[in-house]
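Record type: monomer structure entry
Structure origin: computed from sequence
Chain ID: A
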Amino acid sequence: MVSVLVFAVTGYGWSQYHDLLTGVGRSDAIRANAPKSAGGDTNILIMGLDSRLDENGNPLPPDVYQALHAGDQQVGGYNANVLMLVHLPGDGSKATAISIPRDDYVSLPGSPDGVAKGKIKQAYGLAFDQEHQRLMAAGVTDPASLEQRSRDAGRAEEVDTVAQLLGGVPIDHFVEVTLMGFYQLAQVVAPITVCLNEDTRDSYSGADFHRGYQQINAAQAVAFVRQRRDYVHPQLNFTDLDRERRQQAFIASLVYQLKQAGTFLNPARLRALINVAKQNIAADTGLELLSFAERASALAGGNITFTTLPIVRFGTDPAGEDVNIVNVPEIQTLVHNMIGGPTPIPAAASPSPAPRRSGTVDVVNATNRSGLAAGLERAMASTGFTPGLASTATRHRKTTMIFFPDPGSAGMANTLSAMLGGVPTARDSTVPAGHLRVILGTDFTMPDDLPTDGAPAAGNSSPSPGAPSPPGSDPHRDAVPTEANIIAGGGVPCVK
């Protein structure tokens, strides 16, 4: 995807498009009768495999395994460790990239390998194994055929599993990249500027980064997107979901840097990117790379928002494996509000719900008090407003504000303001029609008469002592991300 984006950003290399098109691996994993997005919208599922093999199932060179700091060909498998749905609106408005935590415990369509429920990342590998066994029993012995046909089964199952979790959202295309592909891409574009909120170190991934902005090489880039623990600084409360935000931050940083004057105007680098794509990327047969590049060109200007889906809590499956417990109706409602699609399945009915008012309230937590936005959203259900998206800002702010989209929504904003104790209101044309956006500042106190169903009390919380963090998300967030986390494009975001 990044290789194609380079053409759009720089305006160079359109003559090389045919070479790229004929070299990238193609797959029929998107079913012909699968639902399609309407109104010119496009949804693309990005899948990153944890396999330590190349796209043809062959081992990597020994020096690459050493640089990756991720074991050898015996480690990993066919899990989709990175799952990101990229929504490109047909009207050219801001794109949305939705990261799906890899350990979300979900139903698997068709029960591949006899498994009806598992981690969402496992759908690929289970279907791969089931198809591989079926083909061998049928007498197929050619290694290349076994590999590619089994991968196609894995891709189709992963696409179906993600679509089911998100409430039937159409997945029009997919792009698959291996760990080797990511490493080779990073080699071409290095050095890459990233930003961390704290010093951090992890011997498992090889991560060793300092606080603030820094330039990293390809091996460090792999460690940056793979780190999920830090025993040297346990107070950081690393979880597997921090990898999702690292991956988003890396992509946002890279896309931003692609736009900088003269950064990628080197024909040799562009040719190297083409070669990386040809060797390590697979896509569905229907994905027109040229058309995608033209539409994706706006992303480099920051016209994209990255979101990580929330979980309810960390738990274990019947086998004792660590999993993320998720609220499927909540996820489907959240995704529907962000990118549209089919009407989500309703959550269980609550006793005597208050009549819904016409407005949907989206809440952004711009404080260091974890869970505050989610608590206010729960309170909205009892007021008659429609709960919307709860998210966390990348920077703190002092003053709470309510924003409304048009003059006709001013009265609705005033009603909500009165409920929240006289919060100031202002018009903002970027707020979706029919919505209100509440940005919670450090001055916010939850009204006593709002039932928050366990939301944290306002108290007198203040940021942790020490020097201010670089611009970015709060490193002291609660370990369980019960709110959707948002990273904006158009810069180099700072993350944990």
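Annotation 1: Residues 350-484 form one domain.
Annotation 2: Residues 1-15, 348-356, 453-479 have pLDDT under 50 and may be disordered.
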